[in-house]
Amino acid sequence: MYLNVFKCIVIIYYMIPRMIPRMLPEIIKNNIQNNKQEDAKIFPEIEYRLQFDGCSKKNPGLAGAGAVIYKYSKEIWSGKLFVGTNATNNYAEYSGLIIGLEKAIELNIKTLHVEGDSLLVINQMIGKYKCNSPNLIEPHNKAKELAAKFDSINFVHIFRNKNVRADELSNKAVVEYLTENNLIF
């Protein structure tokens, strides 16, 4: 019995650690060859993606909107808009969504994945929340009307750190307004 235990110990502590490094490259190579599926994708790649954002300084206050359209993660269009001197952040968010949807329609995009960091706007667009605010009803209805023109459209909430470019554009719209009107120098 002790001899069998000794043989097991020798195999476990001596032979196996020396065999694995020699066998591992062959095991990996066989596994890769047996599982090769060049066309298989874990996640489907999104062709067209719109990201939008809005900002309001003082809320309500100076407001800007920004939107970016990507094709396979490459930026193909970006736009910004100065929304006004007394607009809310949510109104600016809707403005960013609207300018992005309008451009996507102009580019003849039929299937669109929309991302925004405004949970309110995203949830209103998917029907999870009702739009009851009097100052948001008009832009909400306009965005819904534009969204209906796509063959397929979906709305997803993302965090602010994933929406950097649209955020940059919305803030740039406000800064440009201030600069053009000699309010900052």
Strand order of the largest sheet: 3-2-1-4-5
How many DSSP-defined strands?
5
Q: Identify the CATH homologous superfamily.
A: Ribonuclease H-like superfamily/Ribonuclease H
CATH class: Alpha Beta
CATH structural fold name: Nucleotidyltransferase, domain 5
What's the Cα radius of gyration?
27 Å
Which range does the strand content fall in?
A: 25-35%
Report the span from N to C terminus. 90 Å
**Count of helical regions:** 5
Helix content range of the residues, please? 40-55%
Most strands sheet: 5 strands, mixed
CATH architecture: 2-Layer Sandwich
> Order of helices and strands, N to C?
HEEEHEHHEH
Structural class: alpha/beta
Low-confidence stretches: none
Would you mind describing this structure in some detail?
With 185 residues, the chain is α/β, with parallel strands linked by helices. The chain has a single domain, classed as Ribonuclease H-like superfamily/Ribonuclease H (Nucleotidyltransferase, domain 5, 2-Layer Sandwich), CATH 3.30.420.10. It is 48% helix and 25% strand. The protein has five helices and five strands, in the order H-E-E-E-H-E-H-H-E-H. The protein has helices at residues 2-34, 89-106, 119-125, 134-147, 164-180; strands at residues 48-57, 61-71, 74-87, 111-116, 152-157. The protein has a five-stranded mixed β-sheet with strand order 3-2-1-4-5. A hairpin with a 2-residue loop joins strand 2 (61-71) and strand 3. Helix 2 (89-106) runs parallel beside helix 4. The longest helix is centred in the N-terminal third of the chain and has 33 residues, at 2-34. The mean pLDDT is 87.
